Amino acid sequence: MNEEINRRLREAAEAHEPNRPRILARVERGMADPVVRHRTPSIARSWPRAAIVGLVAAATLATGGLAVAAIGGVPSLPAAAPPAVASTSPVPSPTVTSTSTPSARATSTGRAPATTAPSSRSTPSGGSRLQDGPLRSQGSIDVHSNLYWAQNDLILKTTEQLTSLTVELRIAQTGGVQKTGNWQTLSSDDFTVTVQESGGALLYRWTLKPGHTVPAGEHEFAAQYNHAPGIRKIKRDTYHVHAQTPRASSEVWGGFTPPR
Predict the structure, then answer these.
(1) Average of pLDDT values for 160-189?
(2) Homologous superfamily (CATH) for 131-254
(3) Bias regions of kind Low complexity — which residues (predicted)?
């Protein structure tokens, strides 16, 4: 008797076909109900329709299997796993990092110190003026100069007594130029002598002290220095002289000629 009942129940379970359209319609009505959607967010809203149909079918098969198993002795089939549901959540936009190059800005270390010109009467560029008023001048390289050391000479002639005199010899920095000495034929007590780097040159300056005078005649001023080994170029070496007599002022300037 039991075997007959079991056989009929199995046949009924196997012949059972669930009404899928009705089940799907109920699910859709539940999704469309505004009250239900407001209360609890339905997971069905984020699943595609195909996924919902597959889930309903799986649930139906599982229900039929459980009914057969409950009839006694018939092993139940394992429930089918729900199909994978692709996520429909929006993909976050990638963060864009600015790659703009910062504008170049000049680095400042503060105000540059003011540069005071070594003389208010600089040598005019180009050309020469070898005589003016009572003054006559001639610049040359001393004959004893060699490949390592040199001396620039200035011969200054005046036909009148000078009450003010400034003599400048500018030795261009052609490489390794370093002062080694200086001299003049006039008394050292009459002059203030300075040597300094100025504008890419070694500047020798003689300034007549106040109250002193320079007699008429021929006078010589010399600047001595070491330099880089070899024949030194003298094209940029210059001299400048400013003198004052009781009657007027005079200026001469020029360059230096090679030794004879």
Answers:
(1) 98
(2) ntegrin, alpha v. Chain A, domain 3 (2.60.40.1510)
(3) 79-129
